[in-house]
Write a structure and sequence with these properties.
The chain has a 5-stranded mixed β-sheet with strand order 3-4-2-1-5, with helices on both faces. A two-stranded antiparallel sheet has the order 6-7. It starts with a helix and ends in a 7-residue tail after the last helix. The protein has 2 domains: about 270 residues, Beta Polymerase, domain 2 (2-Layer Sandwich); about 50 residues, no CATH class. The protein is α+β, with helices and mostly antiparallel strands. β6 and β7 form a beta hairpin. The longest helix is centred in the C-terminal third of the chain and has 32 residues. It is globular and about 60 Å long. The chain has 14 helices and 7 strands.
Length: about 325
């Protein structure tokens, strides 16, 4: 097969796989939440991912959505929040709805389509978006066919970016899952998150056929030369290539945590529903209820310190034995 034919075949294979995965049905609770979100603004599409997708919806599950917009003004929020989202994306908001006698909770990140395209590519210093969307995801709502195609292509770009980095960090010769495991070990290290050891490996282990099917077509599209023998893959990367990749990644690792800290600072001013989200998280982890007055919800920076002091006195932040 010629190089052009091989590339065309890889693009078709990846497009078919990603489009089918995005269209996989989701739980009724997810569809209900999405219906509520579409009434809040004018999204181009809504993507569902994370633990609620991988493990199902339990009583303490926090659903994860990305709302993709055409422009910042398509989602109702303050001017400061729109500016914050333009300068340091994404913004995050928290929502609750009642469904079937239980409370459903969701964390909603917001990006424009232009931001989504950029952040799923290979060059940005920020690794969080493409790393998220190289993992399983569902396109649970889209405005029209043009938006659907654009979102499918962006998710494909995220998977290709992940696979390209996986070639740099994986073994000189190994199975597909070893390359993806090496990638997610690196990406989790760049983020300001507390994760159990082996979290990335558990994600890959839950979808072994998916990750095995995606790696080779992504490498072909990304221009990664490789040898495949007896089910083992060997990227043809020189020592200089690997050294450069590690140097490039070191900068991403150095920048990753400060970026996350900056987003947390920004969230103090732009996180819609933040007080309710914090109250739920505290009660979930400590068992201590956090009563929120209307004033506390509207002015969290003023009301927060006295509430935190009361929680500390009740032992909310003590480590369990």
């Amino acid at each position: 097969m010629s190089g052009a034919s091989q590339l065309l075949s890889a693009v078709k294979q990846l497009t078919h796989y990603v489009a089918a995965e995005l269209q996989t049905p989701v739980a009724p609770e997810v569809r209900e939440f999405v219906s509520e979100l579409t009434e809040k603004g004018r999204p181009l599409g809504i993507l569902f991912y994370g633990s609620g997708l991988r493990g199902g919806i339990q009583s303490d599950t926090l659903l994860d959505f990305y709302v993709i917009l055409d422009k910042q003004s398509d989602w109702p929020r303050s001017l400061a929040a729109r500016i914050g989202n333009a300068l340091l994306p994404p913004n995050v908001e928290y929502y609750e709805i009642e469904s079937g006698g239980k409370t459903l909770r969701a964390k909603v990140a917001i990006l424009t389509l232009a931001q989504f395209r950029k952040l799923t590519g290979f060059t940005p210093w920020d690794t969080t978006v493409w790393a998220r969307f190289s993992q399983p995801v569902r396109l649970v709502w889209f405005a029209n066919k043009k938006a659907e195609v654009a979102l499918i292509r962006s998710v494909m770009r995220a998977v290709i970016t992940g696979a390209r980095w996986a070639a740099c960090f994986g073994p000189k010769k190994g199975q597909a899952e070893e390359f993806w495991n090496a990638l997610y070990q690196r990406t989790y290290q760049t983020e300001l998150r507390v994760e159990k050891a082996g979290r990335g490996a558990s994600i890959v282990a839950a979808y072994p056929e998916r990750y095995a099917a995606l790696l080779v077509p992504c490498w072909i599209i990304a221009g990664v030369r490789f040898i495949e023998e007896a089910g083992l893959l060997s990227p043809m990367l020189s020592a200089q290539d690997r050294e450069k990749s590690n140097a490039d990644w070191l900068w991403r690792k150095k920048i990753g945590k400060p970026l996350n800290i900056a987003r947390l600072v920004k969230a103090a001013f732009t996180f819609a529903g933040g007080p309710r989200y914090a109250a739920w998280k505290i009660e979930r982890h400590s068992g201590i209820s956090v009563p929120l007055t209307p004033f506390a919800e509207k002015h969290p920076l003023i009301a927060g310190p006295p509430i935190l002091w009361k929680l500390w006195r009740k032992g909310a932040f003590q480590k369990s034995s």
